[in-house]
Amino acid sequence: MKTILAILNIPELRRKVFFTIGMLVLYRFGSYITIPGVNPVAVANANAPGQSFMEIVNVFSGGALFQLSVFSLGIMPYISASIIMNLMTVVIPPLARLQREGEEGRRQINKYTRYGTILLCAIQAFFILQWATSDQARSHDGQPLVSPEVGTYMFMFIGLVSMTTGTVFLMWVGEQMTERGIGNGVSLIIFGGIIAQLPKMLFKTFQNQNVDTFAVIILLIVFGILIALTVILQSGVRKVPIQYGKKMQGRRMVQAQSQSLPFKLNSANVMPIIFASSLLMFPQTVFGSLGIAQEWLNPFAADWYKQLPYYVIYTGMIIFFSYFYTAIQINPQELSENLKKYGGFIPGIRPGSHTREFIEYVLNRITLPGAIFLAALALAPYFVIDALDLETDRNTQQLAYTFGGTSLLIIVGVALDTLKQVESQLLMRNYDGFMKKGKIKGRR
To answer: Running DSSP on this structure, what letter comes out for residue 404?
Structure first.
């Protein structure tokens, strides 16, 4: 409570916190505004599709997708466009040169990212609207989600414009939160959307008279354990010591202070799970939206995500993308050249190629356990549901899928990052933060 009162006593920090909360409240209000032509009553009682690519988008949009709101796509198209642009800067030399041009180059890349966001919004909105107008999208009593008075083509056009505009608006909100609030605005939007679904999921789970209370309690305990392990994963760092040569200070030659080069155990963060999930679920969504139900035409029609081949392929793809994304984020060649340029070296390792090989060796060693833990975290909901025999309890399954795996990693990561920013703001003003440590008594 003292820490919270300290935040409220600092005018600048208080404004940032209230601005962030206000933007999140605005986002949640917009998630309930449906696009024109939708029957709100039918949407409220709609049968959501099963575990699919659309289900993943729905989780990241805070449940706005299956409500067919103006924020149905959430902020994910912008994140996807940013990831694609980061990959392209590695493989396309002109973009790589543009990235090295400083602020002007980054501004140009951001413009291309926004164009890519609009293109991805149009593609994703098309598949979502295709599902909304299909016979599969019905309420519990069989009502269509789209009002019959609205033509299909007009509804598709209005829906494309509304959803794309909503994502562009969220992109602006995220930038404003980053600039004038606390934490990363885009990450906080996803964080707020996921957290907002927790009370609803718990209420629906315990409202069911046939719910297995013991199984739900065990599920919540497992979530607590996974949160603790995720904090360890996010905080795990391998520090490589760095020594700089002697330098002149006044008229004396002094030894430069030793530093360290930190490599996170999970440098790729949640991206490997997002890539793997999207690639595996996207074919299922495309086949479903096109109405292909025959198994000989659609190998993804069955619940193959409950089978052993899915687990093996999913794990392999997460490990692959962990190494791939780490290689994109961290360039050992560039690190070794910068160390050599500024007179730094790793004790016991010669500068140049030997330093590059050592950094690659360290990254390969620490990425593997992080990737295996990511895969275990992503598959945890499936194993828990199978172990607790929750196949017939739809609400508990939704609770496990929504707050397990990817969502859990995002929640913990964003919460830790935001707390660290608040901590730094408090420490600058000589206040104790949330992450208090034992006081060290000074000697007399």
So the answer is: S
Q: Confirm if 303 and 284 have CB atoms less than 8 A apart.
A: no
φ/ψ (deg, to 5) at 390:
-105, 25
- Asked if 380 and 226 count as a contact pair (C-beta separation under 8 A), the reply is yes
pLDDT tens sequence across 212-229: 677 778 878 888 888 888
407 burial (CB, 10 Å; 0-12 / 13-18 / 19+) is: buried
CATH architecture of 1-206: Orthogonal Bundle (1.10)
Token digits of residue 56: 């993943």
Q: Which CATH architecture group holds 212-392?
A: Orthogonal Bundle (1.10)
CB atoms within 10 A of CB 303: 11
Helix, strand, or coil (residue 154): helix
pTM, two decimal places: 0.76
Closest CA to 168 of 114, 123, 111, 119: 114
- Sorted by sequence, the CB contacts under 8 Å of residue 182 that are 6+ apart come out as 13, 16, 17, 20, 418, 421, 422, 425
Angstrom CA distances, 195 to 59, 347, 397, 407, stand at 10, 45, 17, 9
* E strand or H helix at 249: strand 246-249
pLDDT at 443: 41
3-class DSSP assignment, residue 346:
coil
Question: Left if phi > 0, otherwise alpha if psi is -120 to 50, otherwise beta: which for 51?
Answer: beta
CB 102: neighbour CB atoms within 10 A? 9
Stretch 176-182: mean pLDDT = 87
The distance between the two most distant Cα atoms of the chain, rounded to a whole number of Å, is 87
Domains 1-206 and 212-392 equal at CATH topology level: yes
For the chain, which residues make up each domain, given as ranges? 1-206, 212-392
Cα(145)–Cα(37) distance, integer angstroms: 9
